[in-house]
Predict the structure.
Amino acid sequence: MERPAWAPQGIDISVPSVSRIYDYYLGGSHNFEVDRQAARRAMEFMPGLPKIMQANRAFMRRAVRYAVAEGVTQFLDIGSGIPTFGNVHEIAQAASPEARVVYVDHDPVAVAHSQAVLAGTERTGVVAADLRKPQDILAAPEVAQGLDLSRPVALLLVAVLHFLEDADDPYAAVAQLRDALAPGSLLILTHASYEGIPLSEEVASGTVGVYREIRNPLVMRDAEQIRGFFDGFGLLEPGLVSMPDWRPDTTGGQEGESADEDPYAFSGFAGVGRKA
């Protein structure tokens, strides 16, 4: 298998990556055939996966704009993935030129591309770290230099917690990050769930099986389990809802229209909470 020029040395391009699979769902070009094969297998069970990812991105953009409107202009995006159009720093800095963003991912391709995309971009940083080790994220120089943790920060955990198994103690990881943030900070979160998917759980579980086969287990949690991640954060209206139902764009823009067209967009949950 020929290594593309953009692929960092030292990564195994024969092993699928959830970041690169996500990039494929969104129509990106920074993925390998092994990623595309895994994505296509997952879509055999759940053909609406690209629509779910599009709804996920649309929610993220709305939530970032909301944060800036609420005066929160610092963003810590963990599990940020491979940069695509409409990334957090683009949305945040369009709303507030002073916005600061630090991206965190453990995928070397995602980190390398984030560094390339952000070269020369002020008030942004990239950290190679894993959500399972929040202390490494908090201790990273890019976080210390790029964010003032004595002031409110928007913590983005978008489409990442469902890749942490219960054995990883994801609730403790979120709590450790929460405790490091100032009052007024926001938690912006999405999470996969069998609830809302326009398929039987039996069929949808085929997709879960594909992720298990590539050693990136996809953990489908119910609404109550997902609500537990907001411990210490007050859920803001409209609460924990499907992604298109969180403060939808009522101006007739593309985000609202695309979500309404496909029932897959209403799979899983999204929410924003504020630390007291």
In short: Confidence is low (pLDDT under 50) at residues 253-259.
